User: Fold Flagellar biosynthetic protein FlhB from Alkalicoccobacillus porphyridii.
Amino acid sequence: MATIKMNLQYFADEKTEKATPKKRNETRKKGQVPKSTDVNTSLMMLVVFLFLWMYGGQMIITMFANMQREIFTHYLVADVTSESAASLFQSISFQAVLAVLPLMVLAAFAGSFGSFIQVGAMFSTEPLKAKLNKLDPIKGFKRIFSARALVELAKSVLKISLVGTTVVIMIWTNLEEVMLLSQKSVTDAMSMIGWLTIMMGLAVAILLMVLSIPDYIYQRYDHEKQIRMSKKDIKDEHKNIEGDPRIKSKRKQKQMELAMQRMMQEIPNADVVITNPTHFAIVLKYDEQKAEAPFVVAKGMDFSAQRIKKRAQEHGIPMVENKLLARALFHQTDIGQQVPPDLFKAVAEVLAYVYRLKESQSNELRSRT
Assistant:
């Protein structure tokens, strides 16, 4: 028996169910989303090297022209001091930053766009919070030798091998130009090296973009596996959202009791009670100032019907037995609603009978007095 109980507990705690929308929102708020860093890296490299391919030469010429103008107009005629050397260094650094700034902006935009197409608009500071459990050596050891770590290692080895192969192929196909670099001028050699570097960067960027597709698919699969829930987790979440079933049942019972009390308070002012005679009881009232047609004050079935009839008897409210009309009113109307048009005639006949009965009773009282 104990073994069966343990097996049932194991299956109840096993993470076999897909995450609920609530669990997905919670993990997203914590910054836990499926994301491949290769998408960001490949987009950044592609944008940067495309920019260098189109505007790299002009950017370098502009940067060196500005540096030369600063040097020849200011620093060659200046005294060689520590202040002038520091000023020269600052000027060169500033020109280099201005030249590289467009690349940095493009790289940042490409990285942000890569994240956006994967996870959408999201901002979370949860990953930046310090967590002491990350310093746990046992958990760190488990992370290092986990299946996920082995997959990441295999991915890294594969990427390094493919990138290295791509670079070797690019150099091999242009080996003749590389071997002749020593015989070219500095300008031509630098131009050749720059062109070859850009071509290798573009090739590597395209390769990483291709590799990022299966990597993103794996990241989604691994994320879905990490956020799986057990049947017990889903049940507990449902309890937290909907409330404990026992408390919910008690609340519903209390609401029904309050509704019954309100109905009982309205019965003494009603005109008639239409009965089944045992299963249904519908209390009607006609007030020209409130509604154009008679409306339902209270209704009940079985035990509630018996309570309604008892209350009506205590206050002398007439009761009329009409099985078909009672059943139709019970199923077609709610408390506070007017009688449906197709039942007007039947209800009018009942009210006319009640009014004649009340009039005859009042005439008897007068004759006795």
Remarks:
- The longest strand covers residues 295-301.
